[in-house]
């Protein structure tokens, strides 16, 4: 895994929760020291929960700067999930204590941010350490939030599925209906389950 793409002050940014039916999309942006390495640092999806939590604290301690931001389900419904994901990443960059000179984005879509050059990298969270670090902060922060939501709405299994469209989650929607943090523009139920018989 590479540390940086350029020799500038570089941040990586990534989001979590894009494919969920409920909850916000959460993004993080991280600037790591150029010399920083860690044997476990990787795409958050390739780590277990214990590894992610340990790395989360490590990243916060060693980062030159980091920011985390959420975009609400209501906003996702207003502007669509792609625009909301980009908005969350830009808000996370806004939240950093330092302004990056270059932005590395996980994925293939982004919008210009101020006058700072950006590079979209498909699979970037498995290629660049600063994007991997951002993926870990985004996922762990969002997972914690979904655990809080689970306490209020235990019918959907958010303690395990974190809002993704599992059978348990969709069964909860079928029985109990949707709540305020569901994304109303998403297909909450397959059509054959949502038709009135």
Written overview of the protein:
With 197 residues, the protein is of the alpha/beta class. The protein has a single domain (10-176), classed as Nucleotidyltransferase, domain 5 (2-Layer Sandwich). Helix content is 39%, strand content 15%. It is built from seven helices and five strands. Strands 3-2-1-4-5 form a five-stranded mixed sheet. Strand 1 (10-16) and strand 2 (25-31) form a beta hairpin. Helix 1 packs across helix 4 (129-152) and helix 2 crosses helix 3 (81-94). Mean pLDDT is 93; it is low at 192-197.
Give me the secondary-structure topology:
Layout (H helix, E strand, L loop, with lengths): L9 E7 L8 E7 L17 H14 L2 E7 L1 H7 L1 H14 L7 E5 L11 E4 L7 H24 L5 H4 L5 H10 L14 H4 L3
Parallel strand pairs: 1-4, 4-5
Antiparallel strand pairs: 1-2, 2-3
Essential attributes:
alpha/beta; Nucleotidyltransferase, domain 5; 5-stranded mixed beta sheet; 7 helices; 5 strands; 39% helix; disordered C terminus
